[in-house]
Amino acid sequence: xxxxxxxxxxxxxxxxxxxxxxxxxxxxxxxxxxxxxxxxxxxxxxxxxxxxxxxxxxxxxxxxxxxxxxxxxxxxxxxxxxxxxxxxxxxxxxxxxxxxxxxxxxxxxxxxxxxxxxxxxxxxxxxxxxxxxxxxxxxxxxxxxxxxxxxxxxxxxxxxxxxxxxxxxxxxxxxxxxxxxxxxxxxxxxxxxxxxxxxxxxxxxxxxxxxxxxxxxxxxxxxxxxxxxxxxxxxxxxxxxxxxxxx
Length: 247
Ligand SMILES: [Zn+2]
What we know:
With 247 residues, the protein is α/β, with parallel strands linked by helices. The protein has helices spanning 2-31, 35-40, 67-77, 88-93, 95-103, 123-141, 157-165, 188-197, 214-230, 238-243; strands at residues 44-45, 54-60, 83-86, 107-110, 147-148, 169-171, 204-208, 234-236. Mean pLDDT is 91; it is low at 17-29. The site of zinc ion has 5 residues, from loops.
């Protein structure tokens, strides 16, 4: 009886492993089959290889007139620099927030003009949207962005070609570091807790200053930066993160 049970347990274990393995690789394939190749070509980054305790904090979908200044205040309190992936439309409406980001040492990346669904666009349409967003950022900040975060995590060969042509590197995020902070009702403690539980050197942490739940994201930023400091982590922009990577 004991032996039968054990055999059964092993069979259970093996089928669970198989199921997990299949769904895991399925998930990665679902992102895009060329993801690894793009990482090797340094056109896309989702994590860097390093033993140094360093991570990049990134904020999407802003600038928002209320949430973004709250996030900026939290970063300022802890003397930390982050990268903001902004929407062209919101940049044009609130250039003063972009100027503050730049003055306080943050990096500004592109996230498309109005959070477009590129699945519905042809190549020329994606190119127009990306160019238009870069122009809005340049107008507000004086600089062309060098990072692009695809809205909704969309990836395609066409989009990657366009980024290459316009000197934009794709800043994806580290899969484990998506705390879903944008969901209404998710509290600051939950957001910071998710991030600290999954923390590893070289990660790109995704947060959302532009979502309606953004004030919780701002509070989470404060909690998180205290926790990161205690653990000896350095918080940097995307460009600084790349420099910390192994050559
Ligand atoms: Zn977004």
